[in-house]
Structures are given as C-alpha cells and as structure tokens.
Write a structure and sequence with these properties.
Number of domains: 2
Radius of gyration: 22 Å
Strand content: under 5%
Low-confidence stretches: 1-22
Mean pLDDT: 86
Number of helices: 11
Distance between the termini: 81 Å
Shape: elongated
Number of strands: 0
Structural class: mainly alpha
Length: 205
C-alpha cells in the first residue's frame, strides 16, 4: 500500500512538473511571438519569473524582453536585461553586442566599444561582433578600423548586403572610391533597397 501511495505521489508530482514545464514553455513562446508586434513586456516577465526555465530559455526570455525595452526607448531596462543575458551566457557574444547597441544609443561610446571588444574576444570566429563593431567604427568616423572589421566579417560564407555596403561607405570616406563603389554595387545587387535601409541607421556614402 505504501509503495502504491509513493508511486501515486511520484506520478502526480511528475505530471505537475511536466505541466509546469509546458506552461513555462508556453509563456516563453508567447513572449517571443508578442515581441514581434507588441511593446508589452508582461509575457516575457512572466516567463522570466517562472523558476522552471533552464538557463538557455532564460537567455531567450531576457534577450527578448531587452529588445522590447530597447524598442520602447527604455534604455536602462534594456541594459539590465542584456546584463542578465551576459551573466547567464558569458561565453556568447550576443549579450555583449546587444548591450553595446544600447550603450551607443545612450551616448556612452566608451562602454559600447568595451562591449564590442569583449564580444569579439569571446567569439572571434563569429562575424557578427565584427560587423557590429565595424558599423560603430564607421559611424564614429574611424574608417580604417571599420574596413578591417568588415574585412574579417566578409571572409565568412554568409555576406549580407549591409556588410558590403558598410565596407563600401568606409572605403569611399577613407579615400578609395573605386573599391568603395564596387562594394556598394555588390550590396545593391544583393538587396536593391539597401541604400534606403542603411540611411535609416545613419550610413550614407
């Protein structure tokens, strides 16, 4: 009888735990879906406050909420969330790049470049930190440094239009219009609207 009772309790606990996990996963999925359209962070906060999420899922929840805060102009809250991402996943460059973008918007350029440098250090094989830092160098007027970072990124097999465009603008501004225009032509071939998109982030030849 005791064994049957113990087994019954164990099964009930397992069912409850499984239901809790399903609820947490549902909250996280809803958080990610809502982030595409909504400015409300409530779903992400509910997922974060649920203690049953594993660290990887918490990274997704904090990162998603941080991006919503960023879109809402809540920069301090975005910094706090991306700092949590870094704490949960210190070996990944994503949190550093995201936080650097926020610091740049806050006008704290030194902290932004510190995070960009750390992103490159922790994941030197990924092109993403180089592209992000290259764009920051470009906007800061350090064209040679921007070209170096874009060169590293463009050795990757994936080379979107904005990478070519960014390097092209840097080359033009550094006094190499022939190579710069060639990069821009390649970018436009890959995405005919790339000039318009880059102008929205302040990048023009």
């Amino acid at each position: 009888m005791k064994r049957l009772l113990a087994a019954s309790i164990l099964i009930s606990s397992a069912v409850a735990f499984t239901a809790s996990l399903a609820s947490s996963a549902s909250d996280l999925a809803a958080c990610v879906r809502a982030s595409q359209q909504s400015k409300d962070t409530a779903l992400c906060t509910r997922a974060i406050n649920d203690g049953s999420l594993d660290p990887n899922a918490r990274v997704v929840a904090y990162s998603t909420r941080g991006n919503i805060h960023l879109r809402n102009g809540q920069l301090d809250e975005a910094v706090a969330d991306f700092t949590e991402v870094i704490g949960l996943s210190p070996g990944s460059s994503g949190g550093y790049v995201q936080r650097a973008l926020v610091y740049a918007q806050k006008g704290d350029i030194d902290r932004a470049f510190s995070d960009y440098n750390m992103a490159v250090r922790v994941n030197p094989r990924s092109p993403t930190p180089y592209v992000a830092r290259g764009l920051a160098y470009l906007k800061a007027g350090n064209y040679d440094a921007a070209i170096r970072d874009y060169n590293v990124a463009l050795t990757a097999s994936r080379s979107p239009a904005d990478w070519h465009y960014g390097r092209g603008v840097a080359k033009i501004k550094s006094g190499n219009p022939s190579e710069g225009n060639a990069d821009i032509a390649e970018a436009i071939k890959r995405d005919p609207r790339i000039a318009e998109k880059m102008a929205r982030v302040g990048v023009t030849p």
